[in-house]
Amino acid sequence: MKPVRRNGTLPRVTLVPLIDVLFILLFYFMVTSVYLDLDMIPVSKVSDLPPPVAVGQSEAPLMLRLTPVGNVVVQGQTLRPDELTEWLQKDDRAVRPVLVLPSGQAPVQALASVMDELARAGVTRTRLIRIEGHP
Amino acid sequence: MKLRRRARTTRAEPVVALIDVVFFLLVFFMLVARLDATAPFQVTPPVAGSGRDMPGGGVTISVARDGALAVNGRPAGPDWMDRVRYAAAADQVDLIRVNADAGTPLRHVLPLFSALEAAQLAEVVLVVTPEPVR
Hints:
The structure holds two protein chains of two kinds. Chain A is α/β, with parallel strands linked by helices. Chain A has helices at 16-32, 81-89, 108-121, and strands at residues 39-44, 62-66, 72-74, 77-79, 98-102, 126-128. The interface between A and B is large, with 45 and 54 residues. Chain B: The chain crosses the membrane at residues 12-33.
């Protein structure tokens, strides 16, 4: 059945309600949108195996201690995070597994910076460790 | 010379172009919007250049500077692990995101990592923001 008005003209579709709804949706998405570009650094995987047992000097894990001010102590040397990449690239140290023992007073940014430098140096086996019961 | 005025005609404004533009804007904002839960407190993630793209979904644990916790946007106390387990089981997630403020002392964050790793629920990642290109 074709809807025809009494005077024979076709009914006009009003666009105003459509525009109203569109503007409401647009306003909602504009207000609720978050424009942060977020990335992630893996910390642990379910399938992660425990660190491999050292079989020689080249496979022995390197222990990095993160100090409260964000410096790294490794093999008795204190390095800034930006010096770590160069240090790791010497003598193929980057192929060794790395254990990171952060201080509880260090900020999260310091840990992210160290993880960043480890990734830049080509370290593929990184593990965070913590002394149980020690904050 | 006498100038003749044009006859005034009221022309309807073309609304189709307006609707087109509004639709474009709507689709744009729908695509860029992240409908994830936000934290009930201010969290500024740390900056790192080696982060990977983060997929959507998963459980988000937010950590404030003072150590306050929120799970999927809701404040959580010592029962945070139960909430994470419940959320992970309900949504069958394979990713747990720890969204800690850059200035949060690690003493508030490391126990979370330990507990989550011990629970073996899903992959645990630290949320970062990409650093500007050097």
